[in-house]
Amino acid sequence: xxxxxxxxxxxxxxxxxxxxxxxxxxxxxxxxxxxxxxxxxxxxxxxxxxxxxxxxxxxxxxxxxxxxxxxxxxxxxxxxxxxxxxxxxxxxxxxxxxxxxxxxxxxxxxxxxxxxxxxxxxxxxxxxxxxxxxxxxxxxxxxxxxxxxxxxxxxxxxxxx
Length: 161
What we know:
It is a single chain. The chain is α+β, with helices and mostly antiparallel strands. The chain has a single domain, classed as Alpha-Beta Complex (Nucleoside Triphosphate Pyrophosphohydrolase), CATH 3.90.79. The chain is built from 4 helices and 10 strands. It has helices at 66-78, 119-122, 132-141, 147-160, and strands spanning 2-9, 15-22, 26-31, 37-45, 50-54, 57-59, 80-87, 92-93, 102-113, 124-131. Strands 3, 6, 7, 8 and 9 form a 5-stranded mixed beta sheet that branches. Strands 5-4-10 form a 3-stranded antiparallel beta sheet. Strands 1-2 form a two-stranded antiparallel sheet. Strand 1 (2-9) and strand 2 form a beta hairpin. The longest helix has 14 residues, at 147-160. It is globular and about 55 Å long. The protein starts with a strand and ends with a helix.
């Protein structure tokens, strides 16, 4: 990640400064079991000083395709692999006014326990399998407070209707 500060010409013709972060693209994965329950991961987030339920995800490594990154992140964060992968729409920008971070959302189906996970290394302290209805309630109550995760869950729920 880097912070940039550019000199810009504003729409009113005045010069100004625009500060933003430059970040690598990332992936978000909504892993869904045959019973329509999805796997969430939970961890303490330093920046917001609270526990956060989220969907698995992470940065796309240099030279890696988004699907490869999604498969890797799912294994690392949950120990799961998936037989069926669907990219849910076009990639999106997380906050286009403050960062250039682009993210891809994937639905992972046909889940199986694949390998030992790296949850401890990733700081993941909990996992949960919940229905879409429960996840939506968690979003409503602020238990899922990560906007990217909330959006990914809603996109997956809409896709699976």
